[in-house]
Each structure stands twice: as structure tokens, then as C-alpha cells.
């Protein structure tokens, strides 16, 4: 199995000689096209959620013409879109959720890792089963906006099945450096955790998996838009949020909701066509919005996105453990 995770790659050099990794600076002309593409994309994505019939088809046709022209210039488009924009936070500071300084249980290490210059906390454990071979690893992304011992306890099934586990604590949480960004810098923190794991002895750097619950699930979904080497599969339980969720969160939002670029770059639903690898979204049957699921199914069909939605017994919380068990079955196929 390729260490690229089987995702759809877009490593074509464009007419301006821009490679897929976005490492070269954009020319002025390309930047203007980049801006045009971004806003056209935002326009289409927001309208396709709400429009049907003739209007939907007309907007889709216009969008396809735009994206065809821009395919010549852009490779890993979501990477380019995000790397060319720095979020403009309207409030700086810690996460809105209180926390306690829990102590790790025996066999669990409190470690520190780097994310773009931020020194962040995390917990890490290896499976009890002793082996001379390297073991796969799971990055588990907690729900809510702070980390507690219960979040690590939720990973027991992974450890019991031979996976090492790392639980990152995001910027602005639990006394960490940085500010709460809500699905922006936190995605970078999750991907930086991959870098840390891949440097550890005894870890199979080509068999890394990402799984998250609730808000952590939303971050896990967004990691599937990155072509991070070694990550084979991601999953989520109780996520798949629509862009309207930000409005419902009110005062905790650290960015301008009127800036559609800020919303766009934080919303998985609007970016499924950029997915680089498969993601499995588990939803509790007592926690679903049927209209939302239907919209996602249409998006999956249109974008040919490697996204699979699985319904589980239970609600937002009670479906988590069975979702983890099912994800382990899928991860063991790699």
C-alpha cells in the first residue's frame, strides 16, 4: 500500500511552473487567478447546498468551466488556498472551554511536540503487547474545546488492538501556546502530530491513522484534504458539520462570520472535491439530520469524493465506541 494513502494526487506543474506542493511563490497573475477561483468556488459551494433543479445545474456548469481553466494553474488546490491565506482572528486567546490538569495513567506519557513553532502538549501510549516489529499508530482528536483524561480513556480500543495512540492538545487549549482558531490552526496541529509520531522508534511511519470525535471529528475530516505522507485513512464520529454550525456557536467564534473565505477554509462540506484520501464518517442514528446526510450524499456523487458515511446505533456520545471498533476493522485492511 502506498504511503500516500491512496488519495487522488494532483502533482501537475501548471503553465506558470508551479509544483503541486505550493512551495514556490505565486506570480502576480497567478495570485489574481487564485483569488478569482477562490471566490467562484465559495459562490458555487454555498449555492449548491441550497439550490435545486435548473438553477443548480446552471451554477454547476459555470463552476465546471471555471475549474477547468484553473486546473492548468493549480495542483493541490486546498493546500494552495489555505497556504496563501492567513486567518484573521477577531479575538485572541485561549479556548472557550475550561479544563483540568489531569495526570496520565500508568503507561501513558505526557509529551510535547512542535506545530509551526508552537510547543503543544499531547499524551502518548504504546500497546501493551510486546513486539519486535513496528506498530501502526492512531492520532485521536478529542471532542469539545479542551482535553481531559476521559478523552484518552476513549482510545482504549485502539491500544487493545495493537495501535499506538497520540492525543494532541490543540493550540489555546489546556494552557497551550497559541490562540483558539476553531478548525484552522488546529488542523495544522493534528498534521504536526503526524510528524512527531513518524520520528518515534517502533512506530510504522507509513501506517498512521487519524480519528476524531465531535469537533475533533471535524478536524479529522479536514486533515483528509492534506496529502500528508504516511496517513492511510481518517475517520470521525458525530461530525460532518454544515457551514451554518458556526452561526449557532455565537460568541465563541474567533473570526468574522461575514468573511466567507474564513468559513470556507474551515468547512469540510465545501471542500470534499479536494480530498486526498478516504474518510469514514460515523453518525449515530439518534444524532443525524436526514436532510444534511442527503446533501452530503449528493456532494459525494458530484465530487466523486472518497467519503463514506456509516450509520451507527446510538446518539452523539453513545455511538462513539462502536464507531471506533468499526474504524479499527477498516484500518486493519491496510
TrEMBL record:
Domain Xaa-Pro dipeptidyl-peptidase-like residue range list: 117-225
SUPFAM superfamilies noted in UniProt: alpha/beta-Hydrolases
UniProt cross-references to InterPro entries, sorted A to Z: AB_hydrolase_fold, FrsA_esterase, Xaa-Pro-like_dom
Gene Ontology MF terms: hydrolase activity
Signal peptide span: none
The protein's name in its UniProt record: Acetylxylan esterase
Upper classification of the organism: Bacteria, Pseudomonadati, Pseudomonadota, Gammaproteobacteria, Thiotrichales
Amino acid at each position: 500500500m502506498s504511503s500516500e494513502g491512496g488519495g487522488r494526487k494532483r502533482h501537475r506543474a501548471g503553465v506558470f511552473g508551479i509544483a503541486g506542493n505550493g512551495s514556490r511563490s505565486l506570480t502576480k497573475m497567478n495570485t489574481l487567478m487564485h483569488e478569482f477561483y477562490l471566490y467562484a468556488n465559495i459562490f458555487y459551494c454555498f449555492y449548491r447546498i441550497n439550490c435545486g433543479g435548473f438553477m443548480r445545474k446552471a451554477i454547476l456548469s459555470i463552476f465546471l468551466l471555471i475549474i477547468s481553466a484553473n486546473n492548468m494553474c493549480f495542483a493541490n488546490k486546498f493546500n494552495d488556498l489555505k497556504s496563501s491565506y492567513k486567518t484573521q482572528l477577531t479575538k485572541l486567546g485561549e479556548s472557550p472551554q475550561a479544563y483540568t490538569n489531569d495526570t496520565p495513567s500508568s503507561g501513558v506519557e505526557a509529551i510535547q511536540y512542535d506545530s509551526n513553532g508552537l510547543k503543544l502538549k499531547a499524551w502518548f501510549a504504546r500497546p501493551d503487547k510486546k513486539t519486535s516489529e513496528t506498530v501502526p499508530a492512531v492520532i485521536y482528536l478529542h471532542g469539545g474545546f479542551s482535553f481531559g483524561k476521559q478523552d484518552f480513556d476513549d482510545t482504549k480500543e485502539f491500544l487493545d488492538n495493537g495501535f499506538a495512540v497520540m492525543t494532541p492538545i490543540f493550540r489555546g487549549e489546556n494552557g497551550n501556546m497559541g490562540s483558539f482558531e476553531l478548525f484552522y490552526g488546529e488542523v495544522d496541529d493534528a498534521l504536526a502530530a503526524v510528524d512527531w509520531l513518524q520520528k518515534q522508534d517502533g512506530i510504522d511511519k507509513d501506517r498512521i491513522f487519524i480519528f476524531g470525535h465531535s469537533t475533533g471529528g471535524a478536524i479529522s475530516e479536514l486533515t483528509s484534504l492534506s496529502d500528508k505522507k504516511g496517513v492511510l485513512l481518517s475517520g470521525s464520529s458525530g461530525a460532518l458539520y454544515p457551514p451554518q454550525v458556526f452561526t449557532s456557536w455565537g460568541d465563541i467564534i474567533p473570526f468574522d462570520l461575514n468573511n466567507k473565505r474564513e468559513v470556507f477554509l474551515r468547512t469540510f462540506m465545501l471542500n470534499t472535491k479536494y480530498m486526498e484520501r478516504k474518510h469514514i464518517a460515523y453518525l449515530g442514528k439518534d444524532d443525524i439530520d436526514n436532510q444534511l446526510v442527503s446533501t452530503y450524499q449528493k456532494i459525494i456523487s458530484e465530487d466523486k469524493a472518497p467519503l463514506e458515511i456509516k450509520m451507527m446505533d446510538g446518539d452523539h456520545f453513545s455511538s462513539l465506541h462502536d464507531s471506533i471498533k468499526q474504524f479499527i476493522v477498516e484500518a486493519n485492511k491496510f
